[in-house]
Amino acid sequence: MRSWWIPSLLVLVAACSSDDRNAPGVPPDVPASLSSTSLDGAIALTWTDNSYTADPGLFQNYRIYSTSYDLDHNACGSSWQLEGTTVAPEFVVGALANGTPRCFTVTAESVDGFESDRSPVRSDTPRPDSRNIVLYARQFQADGSGFRFWDDLNQDGAVQDGELGLVRRGDGPDIDFFVDRNGAGDLYLTPVRAGTGAEYYDENNPVEDLTSIDFAADRTYRTSGILAIPGYGYVFEMDGGDGFKRYGAVRVSHVGQDFLIMDWAYQTDPGNPELLVRGRR
After folding, report:
1. Does some domain include residue 249?
2. For the chain, which has fewer Cβ within 10 Å, the N-terminal or C-terminal residue?
3. Coil/strand/helix, residue 93
């Protein structure tokens, strides 16, 4: 069985069982790079799409693997498991335990079923966080494609942490916005609830961090979809149902084919357009 030396992890990683093939064939190019984003109970992976672009007629799909990671010894485990397949150069590995590190790698499979060697290995650890929230394009997956900044679930008029930053289905009426994908493959943040609108914080420039979005008033909010652009900030105005407006902010950090990753903030003071970073503790 072959093994690969991974300089970034200083470990020898055993090959997948799927590499034990003897039949002749030409696999796609090896994915050249692999990046990750820590999420709450999940890891978002993105990689170079060179396996497809080098020969689209040969390419079938990508295969995503994971195994345990020993942080103390900087070593990946040897029991790699298939997490899923995709044709896009991105994948969210879900149902992971927060605080438990894992190693990830990606291969490419040809239309004839021949699998490439592995991409560079990436280690990452899921963690609870109000940042790095994944929302899917509704056309790809309705579950997890909608977002509500605050929902007064117990109807007491006060904001509790469990009522903030709620990821929901994108086809429901009780969300502030959902992620829409047009025919060209672009992703949009599209307001849903009556009284909800969105606008760029600065339509000409990205923002360095979510904390750069400090004020939401003095603008006209659109109720149609607004293009999601990596690095750009967005402000939302919502009807609080009590005569006061509510304000929220989003900074998009990644836009892919099937999902985006964003940070969010919400001002808990009714009618106050000054935005504070606030989320689940």
Report:
1. yes
2. C
3. strand
